[in-house]
Structures are given as structure tokens and as C-alpha cells.
UniProtKB/TrEMBL annotation:
This is Malolactic regulator. The lineage of its organism: Bacteria, Bacillati, Bacillota, Bacilli, Lactobacillales. Coiled coil: none annotated. Gene3D superfamilies: 3.40.190.290, Winged helix-like DNA-binding domain superfamily/Winged helix DNA-binding domain. One of its GO terms (molecular function) is DNA binding. Pfam families: HTH_1 (PF00126), LysR_substrate (PF03466). Keywords: DNA-binding, Transcription, Transcription regulation. It comes from Secundilactobacillus silagincola.
Length: 298
């Protein structure tokens, strides 16, 4: 099967006009017509019906079935092109969220440098939500991701490394600072400062709110973790963060409160790749190094 034929056919289903498809691909209209005829011969069925009396191009049921498959075939071919082009460059396309990058990844840097892998990384740094899509669409091949529940996705290969609790972070000036723990319903009237939806924290916040039956206001959202902790230190609001975000040096100004609500959501850390992705020797070595990442046990 000619992949160009599939591309023309897919465009024809979307545009319903041979002339428009020919113009889009900068080919002649007979080229598009012949492509459709070749597909019809291959599948031994009519895919496109031209109603000349009413100047309409109609797609048959068989044509619609092929269109659905053509979309996934085209996506797979594009992904293969990306993977093969990247393999030629001998680079490792790696996704790393800022929190994991600052908290856990530095402990591996020495080993990666020794193995000659650190200098081969092309790092994409953004929240886990964005990186999950980046892995799926082929922009990134390997990622360290956070998720509020262990990841289960048939399109992904997931290696779970560990998990950490979420905590409520307040200023030492806050009325709850000396409590040590809190039920989320007690925070119904508190003002929250949160990470934005590129991160997993909003999903955890939603789970706690639903369990407690409360809806505290979020007064500010940002992708900048240091900005959140700075605002909380000034007692301008409170936050829900992964426990390790608050360092020992921060604890003079910030208090971490254990959340007593029995929800399943935690800060889960996993190595994620696409299902069926074929590693280069360097990538295989890199994943083995990532598996040695130390996540504190809570």
C-alpha cells in the first residue's frame, strides 16, 4: 500500500473535494483520483461515491472504516519517522518535571556523567501532565513522571520507582503551624496558592476536596514552586505540595501538616516510555541508571 494514497484519501474524507485535496498536496486532480482507485482495488470495495447529479462526494461505510484506520496508521508512521531521525543523532530525548529534577535527579548526575550519558541528554523540563502527552506523541522518548495514582495505560511502559505523601504547607505564622496534622475539611475557608495544571498537584487537591466535601478558594496558580513557597512564607495563603518540596532549610519558616483524610492520592514517581519503543544501547543504560533513583520512604 502506498502511504501517499492513504494521505490523499484521508484528506479527501476531511475535505470532500478532489480539487481541494489536489491543491493541498500540490498534485493534479487525476493523481488523487488514481490514488483512491488503487485503494479500492486493494480493498475490493467502493470507498468513495461521486454523486455527479448533485455535485457531492460521499464516503461509503467501507471508506469511513478505512479513514479511522488510516488516521492511526499515519500517526504511527509519523512517530516512526521521529524515532528513526532521533536515533541517527544518538541523543536521548528525556522529559523531567521541575520538582523531580530538583529533588531526586541530581543524585544520579555523577553516575550519568561517569557513564557518558549526561552530556547526551536533550532535556524537556515541564510538568508531568505535559510530559505524559509528550511521550505519547513521540516528542520525548523517556520521562520521569509524577502521578497521583500509579499509572496504568496500555500505550505506555511504566516502571514505578516510589511514592511520597502530599502535605499541607503553611507559614510558621499560620494558626495551624503547630498542629502537625489536619483534616482537609478544616481548610474549607483557607486560601490556597497552587501549582498549575501542568503538574499533578491540582488533581490531588481535587481529590482531597471531594473526599472532605469542601471547596476552598485557590487565589493564585503558578508553575514556579519557589514562588509558591515564598508566598506561603509570607502567610499570604497555604498550599498542597509533595512532602519533599519543603527542604530542611525551609522548615524555619514553613510547617508541613500531614493530611489525615484516607485518600489514595500520593506523589508517585515512575519511568515512562511508549509501549513498543526500541531502546538504543545508551537509552537502555540510561533507564537502568534511572531505576537506581532513590525516593525516600515515608
Amino acid at each position: 500500500m502506498n502511504t501517499k494514497d492513504l494521505a490523499y484519501f484521508k484528506a479527501l474524507v476531511e475535505k470532500r473535494n478532489f480539487t481541494a485535496v489536489a491543491k493541498a498536496f500540490n498534485v493534479s486532480q487525476p493523481t488523487v483520483t488514481q490514488a483512491v482507485k488503487r485503494l479500492e482495488r486493494e480493498f475490493e470495495d467502493e470507498l468513495v461515491h461521486v454523486d455527479r447529479a448533485h455535485s457531492r462526494t460521499e464516503i461509503t461505510r467501507s471508506g469511513l472504516l478505512l479513514y479511522e484506520k488510516a488516521s492511526s496508521i499515519t500517526a504511527s508512521l509519523n512517530l516512526a519517522h521521529q524515532e528513526i531521525e532521533n536515533a541517527k543523532l544518538s541523543r536521548i530525548r528525556f522529559g523531567l518535571p521541575p520538582i523531580i529534577g530538583s529533588l531526586y535527579f541530581p543524585s544520579l548526575a555523577g553516575q550519568l556523567l561517569k557513564d557518558g550519558l549526561l552530556q547526551r541528554l536533550d532535556v524537556v523540563e515541564t510538568g508531568s501532565g505535559g510530559l505524559l502527552n509528550s511521550v505519547k506523541n513521540g516528542e520525548t522518548d523517556i520521562a520521569l513522571l509524577a502521578s497521583v495514582l500509579p499509572l496504568h495505560d496500555p500505550s505506555l511502559n511504566v516502571i514505578h520507582i516510589g511514592s511520597r505523601p502530599f502535605v499541607v504547607v503553611v507559614s510558621r505564622q499560620h494558626r495551624l503551624a503547630n498542629r502537625g496534622s489536619v483534616f482537609f475539611k478544616e481548610l474549607a475557608d483557607e486560601e490556597f496558592i497552587m501549582l498549575n495544571r501542568k503538574f499533578v498537584h491540582p488533581a490531588a487537591f481535587k481529590a482531597y476536596c471531594q473526599f472532605a466535601g469542601v471547596n476552598p478558594p485557590v487565589i493564585y496558580k503558578t508553575p514556579d514552586i519557589s514562588w509558591i513557597t515564598s508566598l506561603v512564607k509570607e502567610n499570604l495563603g497555604i498550599s498542597l505540595l509533595a512532602r519533599d518540596v519543603v527542604s530542611s532549610s525551609d522548615e524555619e519558616e514553613l510547617a508541613c501538616l500531614k493530611v489525615l483524610d484516607p485518600v489514595a492520592e500520593r506523589f508517585n514517581v515512575s519511568i515512562v516510555t511508549r509501549q513498543g519503543y526500541v531502546f538504543t544501547p545508551d537509552e537502555e543504560h540510561f533507564v537502568q541508571d534511572l531505576r537506581q533513583l532513590k525516593i525516600p520512604q515515608s
